[in-house]
Amino acid sequence: MRFSFCNLLLAVLVLQLLFMQGIQQSYAEGPVNSESLERHIKYLSSLQSRIPGYEGYYEAQRYIMEYLKRVLGEENVDLHTFKMVVPIDYGARITLAADGGNLGTLSLYSLWPNLVATCTTRSLTGRLIHWGGETGGLADLNGSIVLMDFNTGSLWLKAAEFGAKAVIFTAPSTTNRMEAKLKFLSRVPFHFPRFYAVNETASRLMDIIARYRDVSAEISSNMTWKSVAAYNIIGFLRGSEYQDKYIVISAYYDSHSVIPAVSPGAQESCGVAFLLELARRLSLRVPRYSIIFLAVSGHNLGLTGARWFLNDWVRGKWEEFGRKIILWINLDISSEATDLALLANGYLYSLYLFPAKPLKRAFQHISTIVQRVKASTGLVINIHEEGLSEYAYWQMLMPSTLIPLESEVASLAGCPSFSIVTCKTLRRFWQTPMDTVDHINMENLETQFKFVAEFIYELADTPNLQPEYLEPWSFGGMWSDLTGRICLYDEWTGWYVPVKNAIVCVRNYETGVIPRYLPSSGLYILSITDEEGRIFIPGLAQSASSNPWEIRAYLIDEETGTVTYAPDFGRYAYSGSRLNVEGEMFDFGYFTIFPSGSLSLIHISEPTRPRLISYAVFCLK
Question: Which of 126, 285, 326, 349 is disulfide-compatible with 541, CB 3.0–4.6 A?
Fold first, then answer.
């Protein structure tokens, strides 16, 4: 009897152990927990703006940190701090009056600066009118504050041309990223305040205009360029066999919008939602190789977080950390489609064949895993692995969406790396205030996640992945750091005086032949000079592998948002605006600026070229 009871107890314990193991295995390998993915996306996109410097960004950082600590252990999560330069919207208000009475004050949001000229204005007054582009209403624009539909392209420039003091865009029911791009100027520091009214505010403004014949308005706003703290979040999972060899899995968690304070970024949160759920699943089904889960920020402003992580952690901690990385896999996910591409290239640098070389030996193995995962999961999904070897294939898959990929930065340094990207999509709401959770297709995300989760596990569980398929690498490649000083020429001393707090804008030089993300989006890599007028920007591609870079520098009056110092291309110019970056460290010397005012000219032609310059701001001394 006692023997039977012992056997029964042992059988119960064994069954309980098998049951718990089954639960754990099904939790890791079973049906996708779509509720977790959806919960991450809903929370992150509810934060109003995840642009660094805004409160929602820091709430997202805390959320991701706490989640990774729960699934990986508190001791396995770290934080990397760096600096970013962003325009901070401290708020805008419009006060209305009509028939001798005050109609109240409403809140507005500032738009992205025209190059560096913000929407700051301390007390701008004018008659409030609505204009839809009618030629009969052009005379009313002079001296007015103009209410316009957001989906009007660049019509706001016509309002400025006919003397409008500012425009207020009303929130549309839907929009697209091309409309957003047309709401600011990327090459002209034109100080013309532009604002955004959310639905309730827009309705109130339209009602007031309809009710009163003559409405006066006063707008005050404050948008200032700031150097803010930004963070990369690093989670560590020790592998079951190759514990001192790391595979980095990255995704960005910040967002971007033409209205910086209204940047929900629901589609932009899909990649980091995948990252968080991969951390949970792989913590229960540990692969042979150790995994670094890296949530980065600064994605839309030149992959800033990835560049500083490579600089500070990979190169700066080479012996204890950097040299242990054998592969970098980046996630750039959208719910608009299910097709996935494995891409060695992206559009920040457009490095042609260089990124594919470290993956040459691994290409066939990766292709085999792709087919094996598709067969084992039964997924009906298109996976385009050709992008690991052919640069042109990337352009075919994303012909109208020039997106940067964090894996580009790793490739630039010489690390074997690629991105898993949702392809054949327009990314319609990207960088708009309409990138909200109601546009998320969870079925498409579930399909993609099933493949991604199994594919990454299979790859990270490959015996002897390095050196059989991946060669060891050393930091270098085509990586270059940019440094130099922004200066004012002192005619009394005959030499250059450093200028602190100058805003420096750097991006790929536009050739019109090779498309790149920064010029196409109208954005820049941004920096602010230190007390000695110096900047340091890590991770630019050497021009021999990519393209020349261009540089601009300005000083902005925080009280007015206008340019007070601008680039000097006259006789005192020391360094030109076009930089052929060479070597591991490129010092451009002195880039000269001079005290200036602004003169705006509209519809001028340049005699030496058969084209029209639609808008120009000349900075005059």
Answer: 349
